[in-house]
Design goal:
The protein has three domains: 190 residues, FAD/NAD(P)-binding domain, CATH 3.50.50; 133 residues, FAD/NAD(P)-binding domain (3-Layer(bba) Sandwich), CATH 3.50.50.60; 94 residues, Sandwich (Immunoglobulin-like). The strands form six sheets. Strands 1, 2, 3, 4, 5, 6 and 17 form a seven-stranded mixed β-sheet that branches. By secondary structure, it is α/β, with parallel strands linked by helices. The chain has nine helices and 25 strands.
Amino acid sequence: MERFDVAVVGGGPAGLAAAIEAKKNGAESVCVIERDKELGGILQQCIHNGFGLQIFKEDLTGPEYAERFITELKEQNITCKLDTMVLSIDKDRNLDIVNTYDGYMRIKVKAIVLAMGCRERTREAINIPGTRPSGVFTAGTAQRFLNIEGYLVGKKIMMLGTGDIGLIMARRLTLEGAEVKAVLARKGYPGGLMRNVAQCLYDYNIPLMLRHTIVKVAGKDRVEGVLVAKTDEKSRPIPGTEELYECDTLLLSVGLIPENELSKEAGIEIDPATGGPVVNESMETSVGGIFACGNVVHVHNLVDYVTEESRRAGKSAAQFVAKELAADGTTISTESGAGIKYIVPQRIRPANIRERLDLYMRVTGIFKDSKLIVKSGNEVIKSIKKKQMTPGEMERIRIPLNILENLNADVLSVHVERNNT
């Protein structure tokens, strides 16, 4: 049995940042376990720029951003087990793993950081009827085929969903000579960052069809077309509005799901709003000594936010090993009010906060000229004016430590207040 102070499950941007931070903060032995054959995760296939603007103050591609952390990981002499699958985590923080060079083995650790990322929703997950021809891909799969394997997935493409990977792939496929006939959104607003809508669709004259969805896929061996219908206020197809669009490929960008099978098996409490573990200010889950960060907790739209959050998780794991993390004392719960879908972290222990706490959240709809109101009981402790908020863009509120230490209630709530003027 190998022994480590900290084991990080996942070698993507979250896992890399957490492992490095754990080592920098005193963890003597750190191991990163990654099921792929290389580190970097999804970043390795994201060859577009836009990464690192906050962390490095530079405009980097995904592989460039990942390489910064991979290089530092090697300099810190952190152990990496690639092409390795974690099978289970038991109550004593033993990890059962398997790979082709060690075979089956068990690792004993003092703290675990979960950084498994997320997966894409498929056609089966959203129940699109019709035949089962080739030519139906998730946006991330198409991205890997094109950017890593060098295969163009199609020439006449329809896209359902407006996640950021899908928006970026609409532009990427256009640059490779394919015709993206339209991008459809079930709701009345796009689900990705507005900057990606502008730079990837509007700049390339790719039609964005709001309140539309696909109700049938046609074709025997290969996709020949899709039946598109308008949707109502509840995103349901409206009978009689169907129209057939000819195409040879359908791309799906219809949401991401945090990869939490391991978390559930370990008995970790899952937040139904995020699909990820309930965490506290230190990114510790409901099981002591197991931390989580990145898209396994909640889906981010900026890798810089993933890095910030993961550094906190890695540092906290090292503090747990050194018995420097306070387990007792006042605990404050966060609560989603009107207009807020979720808040992370869900629990706060002020004793473990040094200067401030960052609250991350998403709103439930489009809000213009409104405010984010933070309350402790009936007392408003912070009010932030917002020109516009959308579900596709994560919001962050920073609460100073001195405010948290002087709260009059054990619940911190956030809600959206509309401007009635």
